[in-house]
What we know:
single chain, four-stranded antiparallel sheet, 335 residues, Immunoglobulin-like, alpha+beta, three-stranded antiparallel sheet
Amino acid sequence: MAVLEKNYFGLVEMLTFKKGNNCTNPISRVKKMLVICLTFVSLTTPAQPVFDADGNSYDTVVIGTQTWLKQSLQTTHFANGDLIPTTVPLNLVITSETNPIYQWSYNGIESLAPIYGRLYTGWVATDSRNVCPVNYHVPAISEFNILINYLGGSSIAGSKLKETGSAHWNAPNSDATNESGFTSVGNGNRNLIGTFNDMNLVSDMWSTTQGTNGAWDCDIHAGNSSTTSNDDPKAFGFAIRCVKNDPLAIHEKDYKNEPAIILYQNPDDNFISVNSPYPNDLAYFLFSMQGELVGQGFLISGINQINLDELVEGVYIFRCIEAQGATSLKFIKAF
């Protein structure tokens, strides 16, 4: 008791007060009131805004086990400060480029970016430099599925994700309830021939999940309560909505009938080897035990080596995301 009193004076005194039932001691009563007041202040502290690499601020919303940004991303830089340029001219066709890293405000109108966010190529969404704010990332399609399933499934989740009213969705938007607080708006898109379409009609949001045509996205539609997913070429310009890193909220895939990803660690080497049995590239993330994203990239089929030089000693979580789910593996950086 003596040790605890030094570190948690108010709490211990409150417990002592109750145990001894010392109702005549005015000092104990004051200490009890102090604890209650401090607890009240702690519970009513508002959530702090999140900032991207450009200094734009975002509100957050907790939906089930996930924390999402309430606005679409509008940064022009990766988290490490690298620039994400736009095309010149605005309607430049980029389908012949190998790895086009671009962003646009809708139709080049900068005043729309704070409302609708920017549109990004799929190469931005899947880039290992991470376009989202620190401790956030572009979701895998499995993370969108977690959100959608929590809201009752793809046939009704769209209405619960959409902002109400007709300011940012075509009227009448009568199916929208936004009961989730996600506050989706009709971002529109930039198509493969460089023109901008579908503002207030659709919100196409990139995921990091690789597909046959490019990458998977999650779509919300005007006048429709459902959500859809498509495997689209990465040259499209779609919105990005970031989700908070949470390595402990793992939704494991059932590997009973499928090969698993295997991690090998040699204590004499400063890297880990990861064997991926899957033919497509898979996004992976490295998290500290505090949930901070400390590394990310993509696995190719076969043996992959991940360098740990930038990590300090400690325990980390390797997480690999697929279309159907995610797997996580713990490893130790020893020296």
